[in-house]
Write a structure and sequence with these properties.
By secondary structure, the protein is an alpha+beta fold. It contains two helices and five strands. A five-stranded antiparallel sheet has the order 1-2-3-4-5, with helices on one face. The relative contact order is 0.23.
Length: 70
């Protein structure tokens, strides 16, 4: 999945596949995680959020099925 780099103290890059509703996040520690059944509307909110880390903790963490892929 193609990801774009973001300015964040916690997250290095983010990507989204609308056809499968999968969000992919690369954290600054090098780990890459995928989050399943992630709504496309939330992708735009996440992508445009001022703080990616705060959005992640508030809206994503422990809210979706997840899998470490890297």
């Amino acid at each position: 999945m193609e990801r774009k780099f973001v300015e964040s103290s916690m997250i290095r890059s983010i990507g989204y596949d609308a056809s499968s509703s999968i969000l992919e996040i690369e954290f600054n520690n090098g780990q890459v995680w995928q989050y399943f059944d992630f709504p496309e509307s939330f992708w735009y909110e996440f992508e445009n959020s001022e703080s990616k880390g705060k959005f992640f903790h508030r809206e994503i963490k422990n809210q979706y099925g997840e899998s470490r892929v890297g």
